[in-house]
Design brief:
The protein is α/β, with parallel strands linked by helices and about 475 residues long. The protein is about 35% helix and about 10% strand. The chain contains 16 helices and 12 strands. A 7-stranded mixed sheet has the order 1-7-6-5-4-2-3, sandwiched between helices. α7 links the parallel β2 and β3. It is globular, with a radius of gyration of 25 Å. Bound molecules: pyridoxal-5'-phosphate (PLP).
Length: about 475
């Protein structure tokens, strides 16, 4: 398939002017005089743009973008499963879409029932005891979870001395960031030769200062931490807590669980496991689950069921409080509920196995072309290194951009040189897996001058990577 992305010289919407005449309600007449003078504004800096120009502007921008509805998106660690359309359709039902967050609870019993059932599904899947659906992304779930660690030790009177959180050197950047934002010092434990946590080094790091250990299992190298039982005991014997970053849940869904592994707190990345839209500024969701002794610290509200129906419970003794407005991202929660309900336990377990199989298919096809560090079996994702090819991971990624498929994550995890991380999930055909592997193989064989020409089919070609990282501009005011 030849691929060429649309390219428009699209202005910012604030610089657009349709030339249509329009009048804001209240600009003249009674409505304006009803507003006290000190509250009136002389100008409202809205672009004078007609509906048709707004629609065309955003459609053009979407054509210059890439998403799961366009092609394969195997971005390791931050992958997107295809978002099934039945879940979108359900979340668009008028009764869900139009329900007001301030409605009386008696009028939205159906919504509450969905939230309650999702709490129960997540509790069962994780083998934990209580769930809050409040956080709005995986990273938000992490931060909330670490606030719980904080409150827990505040209550036990140990917070003054429990100042450290340990993370592996393969950890996703959000883990140390969440720990630091919640006021802890971050200590890093190295990985051993097999890509799992070096347990002896860990033992030396865990002291009376340790508050918690944050880890994802399988880890970001796609390797299952087989020593997790021993690791849990090391922390629990010192009175510290174990935090499970649930980003890699798809690898183990239904086969084992953080509860069985000894974790105390878990967050779910609904987008990575239950096929919902991602967060990161979008409408995401990252519920958290805890063991019984931590339930009192969860963010409110929880949804409870009684003989008279479903109701919000705001009355948790030591809650960290509210971490989002209203009830979390209800539209996303609804999609996760639909996905779990439709797949059922057999479907979820099968999806997980297919995701692992797909990863190992890629591994088998690419070995011999790329070096694949760490001999251990790979689960849901794998990390390659392009260092054996003499090519930079960045150049191969730019080459792939021209194919209409999304490149791997590059340069993460930091412990592998020229790393390329691929997480295919189960929502990919064998045909697409083969096309992707062929592309990676041809990228490894391409001459350097050929690689440097790419990308040519995207609206933006090579950027100044250093400037983009150091001089980050997040909005148009930049
Ligand atoms: C291992 C890991 N932890 C945490 C996160 C953060 O999750 P989110 O992007 O939903 O904030 C991700 C990203 O998906 C991840 O891969």
């Amino acid at each position: 398939m030849s691929y060429r992305q649309a390219s428009y010289d699209e202005p910012l919407i604030r610089d657009m002017e349709s030339g249509t005449t329009y009048e804001l309600p209240g600009e003249t007449g009674d409505a304006q005089s009803a507003i006290p003078e000190e509250l009136r504004r002389d100008e409202l800096r809205l672009p004078g743009v007609a509906e048709y120009d707004v629609v065309r502007h955003f459609t053009r921008l979407s054509q210059m973008n890439y998403g799961v509805d366009l092609g394969f998106y195997p971005l390791g660690s931050c992958t997107m499963k295809f978002n099934p359309k039945y879940a979108d359709a359900i979340s668009s039902f008028e009764s869900f879409r139009d329900s007001h967050p301030l409605s009386d609870q008696s009028l939205v019993q159906g919504n509450l029932r969905i939230m309650y059932e999702l709490q129960e599904y997540l509790r069962e899947i994780s083998d934990m005891d209580a769930v809050s659906l409040q956080p709005l992304a995986g990273a938000h779930g992490e931060f909330t979870g670490i606030l719980i660690v904080r409150k827990y030790f505040e209550k036990s009177g140990e917070l003054d001395r429990r100042t450290e959180i340990i993370v592996p050197d393969s950890a996703h950047g959000t883990n140390p960031a969440s720990a630091a934002m919640a006021g802890f010092d971050v200590r890093e434990v190295p990985s051993g030769d097999d890509g799992t946590v070096d347990v002896e080094a860990l033992r030396k790091l865990v002291t009376e200062k340790t508050a918690a250990f944050m880890i994802t299992n399988p880890n970001t190298l796609g390797i299952f931490e087989h020593n997790i039982g021993e690791i849990a005991s090391i922390f629990h014997e010192k009175g510290a807590l174990l935090y499970y970053d649930g980003a890699n849940f798809n690898a183990i869904l239904g086969h084992t669980s953080p509860g069985l592994m000894g974790f105390d707190i878990v967050h779910f990345n609904l987008h990575k496991t239950f096929a919902t839209p991602h967060g990161g500024g979008g409408p995401g969701s990252g519920p958290i689950a805890v063991k019984e002794r931590l339930k009192e610290f969860l963010p409110v509200p929880l949804v409870e069921k009684s003989s008279t129906g479903y109701a919000f419970n705001y009355d948790l003794k030591s809650s960290v409080g509210k971490v989002s407005s209203f009830y979390g991202a209800f539209g996303v929660l609804l999609r996760a509920w639909a996905y779990i309900t439709k797949n059922g336990s057999d479907g979820l377990m099968k999806n997980s196995l297919t995701a692992v199989l797909n990863t190992n298919y890629i591994r088998a096809r690419l070995s011999g072309h790329y070096s694949i560090p760490f001999k251990k079996e790979k689960m849901h994702e794998l990390v390659l290194s392009s260092s054996n090819t003499g090519r930079k991971a960045l150049d191969i990624a730019k080459y792939i951009l021209d194919s209409g498929m999304h490149p791997p994550t590059v340069y993460f995890p930091l412990i592998v040189r020229e790393s390329m991380m691929i997480e295919p999930t189960e929502t990919v055909s064998k045909h697409d897996l083969d096309t992707y592997c062929d592309l990676l193989i041809s990228g490894a064989r391409a001459g350097q001058p050929e690689l440097e020409k790419h990308p040519v089919s995207t609206p933006v070609s090579r950027i100044d990577e250093v400037r983009a990282a150091r001089d980050l501009k997040l909005n148009w005011r930049g």
